[in-house]
């Protein structure tokens, strides 16, 4: 039988878990089974039934909405049981008096049903009424599964689908930087579908789930396993996608086993449930964060629940009945009478406004179906079918007196709007659900989620946000390396290799520094490589300068000695002009090595190679000239020979000039076509740059060296031919020895260079 009812031109059904415990009758089959009875008042759902009647009475008094049409209601108690829920559904669809011999008239006695509270019960209700196209409007069934219009074509709800809440759960976890969480859910449609969406979104957002466990309210063994898993885990954050009843069971076990310090993230089903507020609950759930349906104050409802409801809508308010009749009819209402003068919970009833919206949505759809107009009123002689109400509900779009706009999207749901609430304790010890932010799916993505972190009290009463990570963040200079067989959030931090850097926290890869850069000691920044070249200030440079200047000094000393003895026979006989030119070229050769020291520039690179080639050719040309003079001198001593007149002093100077000019020409061609240039050599060392002179043209450099080698070989051959000529002043032996050593050095120098 309907717990609360009233007749009207049209009737709206209601299905709420006004009691939470179902008492089954005896099934001994020795007498007719008694009706199911229920106990333990569920205050929240009783308020849902009250506000449904409150809204209907408000509409019946209205002159604008359904002015001459009265709405009746039939409200059944499902007792939180599938069995009672199914029985109530059949009673709503068929009418109360239906004997076995009667025939259905094909018309439902009700035009819409408001309920149920839980998703699984609503699935049963919607599947049962679906073939008859009776619209069902739920105020709190959030399962995403109910969005399927193919399976539930006549289902609507004045609350958002869990699709949005599940994603918002992942976003809040991501927002607070928790990458390592646990998950527990109710093993029913509500919990399983919601958790599936959360896990998918968490994976997309880079959040790792250490464990995902579930249980149902009638499975104490599974509940114990869930508690053991939570106790042994390393995560400090738990996402609890639970119905209110399962959360009560879990809270009880966590309190018994003294499991505290967990940062629990909850859903609208239990986050603001007063039934969870017990003396021990704050020890476990203190600091919890969760989403809640927005709190909306419905004007006049608080006073209605303590006076008008009991006077006009409650069946047992007729005190004039005799006591036996009252006792017979009111036995099932006794536990509700206790609440007659209590309304302190009304401001906290967040779902009441959803029932209020549902009633008004049905009223607006009926208003359009009855073709109501002012001042004529409605055509109340029309017969309205439930499926017509369902079609009209898809088009409703109105604004309530407290400012909320009501409309249904393509899935039959309303827009997702949640408050983010935090379990906090006042100075007097009372537990408050303090709003600390909101989530509004109607806003642009970057504005949907807002949290005031400063207002949050964290788990254990802490002021500082807890950390929950599998592995600590990898600092700059390191990269993440996944641990084998573990989630991606569990990793080791590996230092970057030489020449690589990571300048961000938690880098997956190290970046190679550009060619002229190298990693610093911390491997978090690329710095310019050290540029090295042969400097005048380093030991090697100083040694080379010393030997160069020492060689110049010796050469100048010999030149001075020669000059002071230029008139002596030994100097004259030694071809003093070529000797001085040779000493000058040797001085240039010693000084030429100085151009190879210091920072290479464009000019110094061209100078060092050309100066080297020309000075050496000048030197060898002088030696070659001396060799020819010695050879000619002894050939001239033969009778009738006048060879010396063809190689006098003028010819000697001309030969030196000619040989040198050839080298000058080679160098000019080299510098014109492809001159040497400064080059940063990155191949010798990875961590530093060797600044050197590139040859420009290898052919040009080979021509310079080849020409020097040619003159040296020619000089060696001529000196070798004249080595045994008799004379005290025969220089050919010494020239041969010198050229032999020169050629040996030259042969080893070229490949090593």
TrEMBL record:
<keyword id="KW-0732">Signal</keyword>
<dbReference type="Pfam" id="PF00003">
    <property type="entry name" value="7tm_3"/>
</dbReference>
<keyword id="KW-0807">Transducer</keyword>
<dbReference type="InterPro" id="IPR000337">
    <property type="entry name" value="GPCR_3"/>
</dbReference>
<feature type="transmembrane region" description="Helical">
    <location>
        <begin position="704"/>
        <end position="722"/>
    </location>
</feature>
<dbReference type="InterPro" id="IPR038550">
    <property type="entry name" value="GPCR_3_9-Cys_sf"/>
</dbReference>
<keyword id="KW-0325">Glycoprotein</keyword>
<dbReference type="InterPro" id="IPR001828">
    <property type="entry name" value="ANF_lig-bd_rcpt"/>
</dbReference>
<dbReference type="Pfam" id="PF01094">
    <property type="entry name" value="ANF_receptor"/>
</dbReference>
<dbReference type="Pfam" id="PF07562">
    <property type="entry name" value="NCD3G"/>
</dbReference>
<keyword id="KW-0812">Transmembrane</keyword>
<dbReference type="InterPro" id="IPR028082">
    <property type="entry name" value="Peripla_BP_I"/>
</dbReference>
<keyword id="KW-1003">Cell membrane</keyword>
<dbReference type="InterPro" id="IPR011500">
    <property type="entry name" value="GPCR_3_9-Cys_dom"/>
</dbReference>
<feature type="domain" description="G-protein coupled receptors family 3 profile">
    <location>
        <begin position="540"/>
        <end position="753"/>
    </location>
</feature>
<keyword id="KW-0297">G-protein coupled receptor</keyword>
<dbReference type="InterPro" id="IPR000068">
    <property type="entry name" value="GPCR_3_Ca_sens_rcpt-rel"/>
</dbReference>
<feature type="transmembrane region" description="Helical">
    <location>
        <begin position="654"/>
        <end position="673"/>
    </location>
</feature>
<feature type="transmembrane region" description="Helical">
    <location>
        <begin position="734"/>
        <end position="752"/>
    </location>
</feature>
<keyword id="KW-1133">Transmembrane helix</keyword>
<dbReference type="InterPro" id="IPR017978">
    <property type="entry name" value="GPCR_3_C"/>
</dbReference>
<feature type="transmembrane region" description="Helical">
    <location>
        <begin position="578"/>
        <end position="598"/>
    </location>
</feature>
<feature type="transmembrane region" description="Helical">
    <location>
        <begin position="610"/>
        <end position="634"/>
    </location>
</feature>
<feature type="transmembrane region" description="Helical">
    <location>
        <begin position="539"/>
        <end position="562"/>
    </location>
</feature>
<keyword id="KW-0472">Membrane</keyword>
<protein>
    <recommendedName>
        <fullName>G-protein coupled receptors family 3 profile domain-containing protein</fullName>
    </recommendedName>
</protein>
<keyword id="KW-0675">Receptor</keyword>
<dbReference type="InterPro" id="IPR017979">
    <property type="entry name" value="GPCR_3_CS"/>
</dbReference>
<dbReference type="InterPro" id="IPR004073">
    <property type="entry name" value="GPCR_3_vmron_rcpt_2"/>
</dbReference>
